[in-house]
Amino acid sequence: MKIVIGPARKTDAEELAALFIKARKLMYKLSPRGFGAALNGPDVPDDEKRRIIGELKDRNQLTLVARTQAGGLAGFITGCIEKYSDDLLTAPFVSLVYIYVEVKYRRRGVARSLMQRLEAWAAENKISVMELTVWSGNEQGQALFRDSGYVPLQLRLAKKLPACRDAT
Ligand SMILES: CC(C)(COP(=O)(O)OP(=O)(O)OC[C@H]1O[C@@H](n2cnc3c(N)ncnc32)[C@H](O)[C@@H]1OP(=O)(O)O)[C@@H](O)C(=O)NCCC(=O)NCCS
Question: Is the pTM of this model over 0.90?
Fold first, then answer.
């Protein structure tokens, strides 16, 4: 089946919102144990749709969709231009916000193509670095990013502390 990559349109917003909710639920499942509570919020498709439509107008952000021949979405990627440097990266650079491919379209190179198209957008904006975060337990994500040439820059560590009952 032929899959075409292109910028998301307003008419994709409803389907994109449904895919985004699926992606967020999966990210919650893959979160390191005890972390990721923000990913476990209620699903409000209309709010997601409104957010997506708003973000489509933002020139510092791009959402690309992988469209099937039938017109449905096989997956999406969102990236944004970061304007502030940090210790390791000099701004501007592109940060990958989300990438998700529907289960039945996986292992056909859809995500690889989405990554390449986002990198091409970075290059069109004269940006030479793209960065991303991946959960330590997300093996498929890590495999994709290794395949696409990304290398680890840092390790993020956290420890759960006993809750402080009386902070006064
Ligand atoms: C990660 C994900 C986007 C990959 O999508 P995909 O379209 O199946 O990936 P591709 O077919 O383009 O894979 C490209 C390469 O990545 C690697 N790869 C991708 N998925 C893999 C898997 N499940 N196991 C091992 N390697 C994998 C392989 O090297 C693959 O090349 P190959 O098929 O020629 O061996 C998809 O599994 C997904 O949506 N996962 C849930 C969301 C997610 O984890 N997003 C990333 C977190 S930010």
Answer: yes
Distance (Å, rounded) from C-alpha 95 to C-alpha 63?
12
Does residue 87 lie within any of the structural domains?
yes
pLDDT digits (tens, 9 = 90+) for 55-83: 999 999 999 999 999 999 999 999 999 99
Distance CA 72, CA 58 (A): 24
Say if ligand 1 is within 6 A of residue 140 CB. yes
Low-confidence ranges of the chain (pLDDT < 50): 167-168
Could you tell me the strand order of the sheet in which 130-131 lies? 3-7, 61-68, 73-82, 93-101, 130-131
Please give the tally of structural domains in the chain: 1
Beta bridge partners of 62: 79
- DSSP run (H or E) holding 124: helix 110-124
Q: From the CB of 66, is ligand 1 less than 6 Å away?
A: no
Q: Does the beta carbon of 107 lie inside 6 Å of ligand 1?
A: yes
CATH number at residue 37: 3.40.630.30
Is 153 a domain residue? no
Q: Which domain holds residue 108?
A: 3-147
